[in-house]
Amino acid sequence: MATFLYRLGRFAFRRRHFTALFWVALLALAGVGAAGAPAAGNASFSIPGTEAQKAFDVLEERFPGASADGATARVVFKAPAGEKMTDAGHKATVQKTVKELSGDSQVALVTDPYQGGGVSQDGAVAYASVSYKVSGMELEDSSRDSLKAAAGNARDAGLTVEIGGDALQAVPETGTAEIIGIGVAAVVLVITFGSLLAAGLPLLTAIIGVGIGVASITALASTLELGSTTSILATMIGLAVGIDYALFIVSRYRTELAEGREREDAAGRAVGTAGSAVVFAGLTVVIALVGLSVVNIPMLTKMGIAAAGTVAIAVLIALTMVPALLGYAGGKVRPAGEKSKLLGGGRAKKTATGTATGTGTAQRPNMGTRWASFVVRRPVAVLLLGVVGLGAAAVPASSLELGLPDDGSQPTSTTQRRAYDLLSEGFGPGFNGPLVVVVDAKGSDDPQAVFQRTGDEIKGLDGIVTVAPAQPNEAGDTATITVIPDSKPSSVATEDLVHDIRDAGAGIKADADGSGTGSGTGSGTGSVDVLVTGATAMNIDVSQKLNDALLPYLTLVVGLAFLLLIVVFRSILVPLKAALGFLLSVLAALGAVVAVFQWGWLSGLMGVEETGPVMSMMPIFMVGVVFGLAMDYEVFLVTRMREAFVHGENPGQAVVTGFRYSARVVTAAAVIMMAVFSGFIGSSEAMVKMIGFGLAVAVLFDAFVVRMAIVPAVLALLGKKAWWLPKWLDRVLPNVDVEGEGLRTQDDRKGEDRELVHA
Question: What burial class does residue 526 get, using C-beta atoms within 10 Å of its C-beta: 0-12 exposed, 13-18 middle, 19+ buried?
Answer without folding.
Answer: middle
